[in-house]
């Protein structure tokens, strides 16, 4: 559905010259139809640039972006218009028209597309029902909560019947409970309408809840791509490890502040409930301090993760003993690093 082939993007500097650092460099990825694809990265990593290339809000400096069979950079005005009807977008700050009512905002893309009044009316009512806002049609954005505003954004993005929905930090301005509701709505659109979804975020929890696959972006480059389960449980890049640690509630500096070796244990199924920590400590003489831990669900599968620093005794033997018990051990940091 969406393919990036060796895409780079360099913005012009203040004097109109090419900037010295590329916002994206050599990005290749592909998103399958019906997939929920996450892009995670720190501020400035290039996430917004990446998502804006998909609907032609930016054009690549090199490489190709192919969306629904079209080379985006080669589209003329009419081609771009057609693409944007097939690719809806929602935003962190909703981008609603404050002078229009809720219904007016949702109807706007349909009116732009020249649809007849009766159809606009019926479709707007249907969309507002889909996002649970039928009773709010006559209200103005200023009278709505953040979650309600994002629902309007979603209804508007769906108006032209897109195949793809782009979510640009769509829950970053919302509280956790509202985030949960909006993510549930977005997941439902994927399941029920078969919408392909690309979302960018700096929160691993958002990826964990809704994505099938994720790409990790670092300084304009994709450093890791994979199934969410794979990247979440066994992150390979330093950036992914940091995001996962944050999601586990381990402060970024914890690895540097403690002695010994910092490891993350992943328990699945039975192993989660065995009293294994004390046994390993007794048998190997290793001491541990707990830096963070949580029991999660990765969509349907429950699993536990515990981040420990191991000191003294025979650390190698302790790691081997955990592994023998079916516990996955990932080295997160060494003392002083
Ligand atoms: N219109 C622009 N003109 C010049 N430089 C830009 C422009 N947009 C982005 N950049 C630069 O490109 C790089 C990537 O920015 P981008 O907004 O894509 O990252 P991001 O990961 O979305 O960050 P954030 O989460 O802070 O929005 C940054 O160095 C940024 O300053």
UniProtKB/TrEMBL annotation:
**Entries under InterPro entries matching the protein:** AAA+_ATPase, ABC_transporter-like_ATP-bd, ABC_transporter-like_CS, ACT-like_dom_sf, MetN_ABC, MetN_ABC_transporter-like, NIL_domain, P-loop_NTPase
Task: Name the CDD domains for this protein.
Answer: ABC_MetN_methionine_transporter
Q: Residues in domain ABC transporter?
A: 2-244
For this UniProt record, give its keywords in alphabetical order, as a comma-separated list. Amino-acid transport, ATP-binding, Cell membrane, Membrane, Nucleotide-binding, Translocase, Transport
What GO molecular function annotations does the UniProt record carry, in alphabetical order? ATP binding
Q: Could you confirm whether the keyword Oxidoreductase appears in this record?
A: no
TM region(s), chain numbering: none
Q: Does the keyword Signal apply?
A: no
Q: What is this protein called?
A: D-methionine transport system ATP-binding protein
Lineage, opening ranks: Bacteria, Pseudomonadati, Pseudomonadota, Alphaproteobacteria, Caulobacterales
């Amino acid at each position: 559905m969406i393919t990036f082939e060796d895409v780079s993007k360099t913005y012009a500097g203040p004097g109109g010259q090419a900037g010295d650092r590329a916002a994206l460099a050599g990005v290749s990825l592909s998103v399958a139809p019906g997939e929920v694809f996450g892009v995670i990265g720190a501020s400035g990593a290039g996430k917004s640039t990446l998502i804006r290339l998909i609907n032609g809000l930016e054009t690549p400096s090199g490489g190709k972006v192919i969306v629904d069979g079209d080379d985006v950079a080669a589209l003329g005005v009419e081609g771009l218009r057609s693409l944007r009807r097939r690719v809806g977008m929602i935003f962190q700050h909703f981008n609603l028209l404050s002078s229009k009512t809720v219904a007016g905002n949702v109807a706007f893309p349909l009116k732009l597309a020249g649809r007849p009044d009766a159809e606009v009316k019926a479709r707007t009512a249907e969309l507002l029902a889909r996002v649970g806002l039928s009773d709010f049609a006559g209200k103005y954005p200023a009278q709505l909560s953040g979650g309600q505003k994002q629902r309007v954004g979603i209804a508007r993005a769906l108006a032209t019947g897109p195949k793809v929905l782009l979510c640009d930090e769509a829950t970053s301005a919302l509280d956790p409970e509202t985030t949960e509701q909006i993510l549930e709505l977005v997941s439902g659109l994927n399941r029920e309408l078969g919408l392909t979804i690309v979302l960018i975020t700096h929160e691993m929890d958002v990826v964990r809840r809704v994505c099938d696959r994720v790409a990790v972006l670092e300084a304009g480059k994709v450093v890791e791509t994979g199934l969410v389960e794979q990247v979440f449980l066994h992150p390979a890049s330093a950036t992914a490890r940091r995001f996962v640690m944050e999601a586990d509630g381990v402060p970024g500096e914890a690895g540097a502040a403690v002695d010994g070796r910092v490891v993350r244990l992943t328990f699945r199924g039975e192993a989660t409930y065995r009293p294994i920590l004390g046994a390993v400590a007794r048998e190997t003489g290793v001491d541990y301090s707990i830096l963070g831990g949580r029991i999660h669900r990765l969509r349907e599968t429950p699993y536990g993760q515990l981040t420990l620093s191991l000191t003294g005794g025979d650390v190698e033997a302790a790691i081997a003993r955990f592994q023998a018990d079916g516990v996955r051990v990932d080295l997160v940091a060494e003392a002083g690093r």
